[in-house]
Specification:
Arc Repressor Mutant, subunit A, three-stranded antiparallel β-sheet, 2 domains
């Protein structure tokens, strides 16, 4: 997840929320008041005295939840072993909410194949080498988001959210990973998990989780969301308060599944940036890359053979060079050539 977005790259960005508003809700006989009451059940009590309609209140609360995916809340505080140690210190929030299964897309539906592909992709690219329970947990996060008002209400909509924006929710959709051919065994395992999840299977250990990240990174939002469980290399979280309770997951499947158009050239560029090693810096005048252990002045070739120039090493004939004028002449010529080369390199 990037970070989940996480993304390639994390390729992964995950964030935190300030929580839900508090206050009282005046209950009247109008339809607006009833709608507002419904929202209070989803997100906790709303601020008292607001004149906005229930729809406006819903938009405001959604903006609060979506703020998890923006700004400084997306920062990774620390990585590596330190992240693993600090993640372990964050306490589990309590028993996860028990979620009902999702089975709205029948196997005979024209939308089923596309939904299955999107969910399989999410499981494979996010958790191909995770244990079975870890794969099931990733599937649960996708389907939990589908049912939550803060996210798109389709499988592919959740998986590909933000794919053509600077930050995507699942990093594999925008870091070039999709261009890699999947490994057959892991793909088949992921598809089996996706098929079971679309048939109503749930992973009770993560409950209402809507976020996760790898244990070797520590996103800032990890201190604000409610930590549920660690499975394999992933740590799972839910929204705090009413927004993370079972009753908040009340949205329904939109009835349509499609994979959005993706800029392939962008994916190719991202993948190439990951695979191509950085070229060592080339210093004009020498074919040997400078090293920190070098012990000579910047203008001194230090005995290196410079093949970018016209000078070539010539060794005197071993017979004629032992003695006599001929051998001495060849040695003097070699010495002169070397002196000229050193002077040229020093310029």
């Amino acid at each position: 997840m990037n970070a989940m977005a996480l993304s390639r790259n994390a390729k992964r960005s995950l964030m935190e929320t300030a929580g839900t508003a508090r206050g009282r809700l005046a209950i009247g006989g109008s339809a607006l008041a009833i709608a507002a009451l419904g929202l209070s059940l989803l997100f906790g009590n709303l601020d008292a005295g607001h004149a906005e309609s229930g729809i406006a209140m819903k938009a405001r609360e959604m903006a609060k939840l979506k703020s998890l995916d923006s700004g400084v809340q997306a920062e990774i505080i620390v990585e590596g072993l330190s992240a693993q140690e600090r993640n372990a210190l964050i306490p589990i929030s309590g028993q996860p909410a028990q979620m009902s299964g999702f089975s709205a897309i029948g196997t005979g539906s024209a939308q089923y194949g596309t939904a299955l592909k999107c969910l399989t992709q999410a499981i494979y690219y996010e958790a191909a080498n995770e244990p079975l329970r870890g794969k099931r947990a990733v599937a649960q996060v996708v389907l939990n988001r589908l049912k939550h008002p803060a996210y798109p209400n389709s499988v592919c909509g959740v998986v590909y959210e933000g794919v053509n924006l600077p930050v995507c929710q699942f990093s594999f959709t925008c870091d070039g990973s999709l261009l890699r051919t999947p490994m057959a065994r892991q793909w088949n395992e992921s598809r089996d998990v996706a098929r079971a999840a679309l048939a109503g299977s749930v992973e009770p250990s993560v409950g209402s989780a809507t976020h996760y990240h790898a244990d070797y990174v520590l996103p800032r939002w990890a201190y604000t969301l409610a930590k549920i469980e660690k499975i394999g290399a992933h740590i799972f979280y839910r929204f705090p308060g009413g927004a993370g309770s079972q009753r908040a997951f009340s949205d329904h499947w939109t009835g349509r599944e499609f994979i959005p158009q993706i800029d392939r050239s962008r994916l190719e560029a991202m993948l190439a940036a990951q695979m191509e090693p950085e070229e060592p810096a080339f210093v004009p005048g020498t074919t040997v890359t400078p090293h920190v252990a070098d012990r000579h002045a910047p203008a001194d070739v230090g005995g290196r053979l410079d093949t970018t120039k016209t000078w070539r090493l010539r060794i005197p004939d071993p017979v004629n060079g032992r003695s006599g004028a001929g051998g001495s002449a060849q040695i003097r010529e070699l010495s002169a050539d070397y002196s000229a080369e050193a002077a040229e390199s020093a310029q």
